[in-house]
Amino acid sequence: MQGFSDGGADLAQLQSTMRTIEVACTSIQMHINPTAAEATILSLAQSPQPYKACQFILENSQVANARFQAVAAIRDAAIREWSFLSNEDRRSLISFCLCFIMQHASSPEGYVQAKVSSVAAQLMKRGWLEFTAAEKEAFFYQVKQAILGAHGVDVQFIGVNFLESLISEFSPSTSSAMGLPREFHEQCRTSLELNYLKTFYFWARDAALSVTNKIIESDAVIPEVKVCTAALRLMLQILNWEFRHDTNSTKASINVFSAVVRHDNASSKRSECVLVQVTGLTALLQSLLES
């Protein structure tokens, strides 16, 4: 089985690795010797420290499935080798994934973006108990700027989706297996609940509010709709969290999304539809708070 270790990799070797993975992915899609092709892809994930090769594929390959397999290999290798990686290398892998999804926010290949976002969330959780508060804040500063719309609507949507992935990883029912004891997952869960969930809720609320006027005033489908929908979905996800620490205080301190709606005879059916959806979700959020 061919290996794809980063050791001494130069441009020619990186390009060769990328072509090999691209051919393997294409072979699987075309059902040409799929067993050998799957073995080739598996060898990428099983190679020691394949990060440089995987990052090269993500940044340069024109084959979407090759990029998907590359980020999957980053995840598998990083989880396997975590104890051997330096703290700088760990942070670098997470930063790479976050930067990638922000820089490719307008990409039509949503499944690749979702995978990179998921890997960033998993690696952040893996290092959660080791990263300092300052290191976490450095990651979340970038995410906050995205969610609040500092870099445009597409990046705003990606930022909200990343938090949804992150919260899913910290929830026992949806977390990914990492070969770690239950105590690790419980400590991560408690830390996120006590220190971050409320903040994330307010970021989601602000994201929804930031696009509401444009949605109401528009007669057409606009990108802000997906931001509002994602933000409301994130708020609902947080309110559905099974709080175990000071539950009443936490829920009472979170205000549901609300906005003053200015009715206009010229409002389009699309705007009315969005408002109905927002009103319904708001009512659902309110019922959850009162339960």
Automatic annotation (TrEMBL):
GO terms for biological process: protein export from nucleus. Keywords: Cytoplasm, Nucleus, Protein transport, Transport. It is found in: Cytoplasm; Nucleus. The keyword Metal-binding does not apply. InterPro entries: ARM-like, ARM-type_fold, XPO4/7-like. GO terms for molecular function: nuclear export signal receptor activity. GO terms for cellular component: cytoplasm; nuclear pore. It comes from the Eukaryota. Belongs to the exportin family. This is Exportin-4. It comes from Durio zibethinus. The gene is LOC111277124.
